[in-house]
Structures are given as C-alpha cells and as structure tokens.
Task: inverse folding
DNA sequence: AAGGGAATGTAGCGACTGCTACAATAGACT
DNA sequence: AGTCTATTGTAGCAGTCGCTACATTCCCTT
C-alpha cells in the first residue's frame, strides 16, 4: 500500500466537499481532489460513480443524525411552540445550512426517480422523526402523529426558506403551533 | 426569415421537455432538439444559457398557475380538511407529478444560491398562495395565515412523498387538519 | 529471495458541455 | 436591381464527464 485511504476517510472528505459545493453537481475529479486522491482511485474503490454516491448518501444520512444529536440536548420541550421553534431556529443556523442544501439535492434527485436518493432521504426522515419524538413536550398522547406533523411542517418551512418565503414559513408555524 | 420560431413557441416546447426530463440536467442540445431547432439558435435568441433558463423559469411559473386554475374550480371548500385534502389529492395526480419534479429542481437550485431560481420559486409560491386563499372555507377569520399554513404543510408533504414517506405526510395532514 | 496481489500513476478515449467564427440565405427596403 | 439586416447552417473549440488500458510500485507471503 502507498497511502491506503480508508473508504471511511474518503467518504468523510467527500461528504465535506458535497456539503460545501452541492451533491448533484459533484463530479469525480473534484471529489477526488477534495479527498486527496484521484478519480482513478475513486472508481477503483467504489466500482463506479453510482456506488460512490450510494455510499456517500448513507454516510451523509448518518452524519446528519449525529449532527442533530450533538446540536440539541435530548430534553423535553416545555410546550409545542417551543419545541418546533427551537428546531426551526436550529436548522436555520449556519452549521446546518449546508445540510439543508444537500438535503434538497437529495429530494430533487429522488423526485427524478433516483432510488438511492429515495432510500437515503427516507432514512434521513425516519431518523429525524425519532430524534424529534424524544424532544416533544411531556404528556403528548400521540407522539407519532405530533412528530410527523411538526417534521412535515418543518420540511415545508425549509422549502419556503429556500425560495425566500421565510415570512410565509413563520406565519405557518405561528398559526399551527401558537404560543 | 426561414422558420422564425417565436420565443414563446420555443419556451413552450422547452418547458414540455423540462417537465419530462428534468430542469437541472437540461442541456442546450436536447432542449433545442425538443424545440425543433439547434443549440446555435437558442444562444442566438436568448444570449446565453443563463437567460434561457431565466425565461424558462418564468414561463413554468406562469404555466403552473394556469394549470392550477384549470384543475380545480374556484369554489369554497366545505371545511379545512376537505380543502387541504383536495389540494393534496390534486397534486398527487398524474398531470401534476412533472410539475412537482421540476419544482424540486427549482428548490434545489435555489438552495445552491441560484437567484433566478429563488425568484421563480417565490413567484410560484405567491401564486399558489393566492390560488389557495380563494378556495378556503367561507368565514375564516385569518385567510392569509390559514393559506400559509396549508401551503407550507402541503410543501412538506410533497417532500415526504418524494422520499417515500407518504404515510408520514398523510398522518401530518390528518393530525393538523382533522375531519 | 521470489512471487503475487493490492494499490497507484499516467495517459487517454469517446461523449458531452456551453459557446463561437464564418459563411450562406432569405426577406424587407431604397 | 441592389443593399442591408435578420436569421440560419456548418464546423469546431476548449473544457469536462465517467471510465479504462497499461504499466509500475509496494507490501505480504512463501
């Protein structure tokens, strides 16, 4: 072996690159450069770009889960409004913006029928749902339904944010989960 | 003049192509072929690809508005649940799937900082909001807030649909706007 | 020490990208 | 009729894409 980058190390570096520069527009040579290797070696390790993307997506899904866990302590919110508004504030925070951009790359590719993207997106939402459920106010009778509601609304708000309709997003949140 | 395609005709044909094959991956030669002309002529008419995309986005925004108007009569829904579930059902309908795919192409590009995409997305959401407001149940005291809520939730549901989390989308809707 | 397989570099292929230089044609106007 | 301008075709450039053939180097095993 000369350098013997681990697949994990490669994925880590490529994930960092994808978070900075986008996922859909990522091509082998820039990814390789970011990971300190060559396109030649990426194909060698992952077989083809398709496999690389698949593994990169799973890595990113896991990475987001870790990042979410680290960002907000696993404690119960005081009430519904505080719960969702904390989450929204968190996602609008600098460190999470790259994840949001990559997230919509994934959604867009999933919409075009990319099965790997659908799967990765599904994994991400499941993880997000579980994470959110642990942070709901105490005593909620239907935590699944409430977590689904909040998560779905949060996703819609993210869409609105991306197209400059932050006001509409905020209004929706304040209306559905008022103080 | 030999053929003298109108810009409008070109945009129409290219919009059809974008709805079929995606917007982010659209390149000049396929677009030109779909419009019965050449990449050479597209550049001639639009100056550069950037201008073409800009005009195509506005065309699509207008097209979506027209399509929405034509799809559901401008009548008031009986209640909130009927209102939103009709809209969701409509958007999940075959003819609207291409628009959803293109929509998330736009959101994804907007997330990457594409100003034209942000603007087009904003126009689309404003139009959608106005359209929805006319179809709210009668007697709602805060139509803007309610329309924003429903629209934002619908967008979140669309995201969930794209990544195969239709169940979560439905659960959210039934929870926030129960029968 | 010899062999073997894993890892890497170099070079390049064919297809595609947005875009352009050059020339030809067609119509409108004087 | 002759000129001018708008429109179009042909050909191609320089760059990027995913991927591969070939050769080399390295470490581990025997």
Result:
């Amino acid at each position: 072996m000369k350098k013997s980058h681990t697949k994990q190390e490669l994925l880590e570096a490529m994930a960092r690159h994808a978070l900075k520069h986008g996922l859909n527009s990522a091509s082998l040579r820039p990814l390789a450069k970011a990971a300190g290797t060559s396109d030649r070696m990426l194909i060698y390790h992952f077989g083809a770009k398709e496999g690389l993307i698949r593994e990169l997506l799973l890595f990113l899904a896991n990475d987001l889960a870790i990042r979410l866990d680290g960002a907000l302590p696993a404690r119960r919110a005081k009430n519904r409004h505080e719960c969702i508004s904390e989450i929204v504030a968190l996602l609008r925070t600098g460190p999470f913006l790259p994840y949001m951009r990559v997230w919509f790359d994934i959604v867009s590719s999933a919409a075009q029928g990319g099965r790997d993207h659908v799967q990765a997106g599904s994994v991400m939402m499941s993880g997000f749902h579980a994470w959110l459920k642990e942070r709901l106010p105490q005593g909620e009778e239907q935590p699944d339904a409430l977590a689904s509601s909040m998560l779905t609304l949060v996703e819609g708000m993210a869409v609105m944010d991306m197209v400059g309709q932050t006001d509409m997003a905020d209004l929706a949140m304040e209306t559905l989960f008022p103080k």
Notes: The radius of gyration of chain A is 18 Å. Chain A touches chain B through 50 residues (CB under 8 Å). Residues 1-4, 37-38, 40-41, 44 of chain A lie near DNA strand C (CB under 10 Å from a C1'). Chain A has a mean pLDDT of 96.
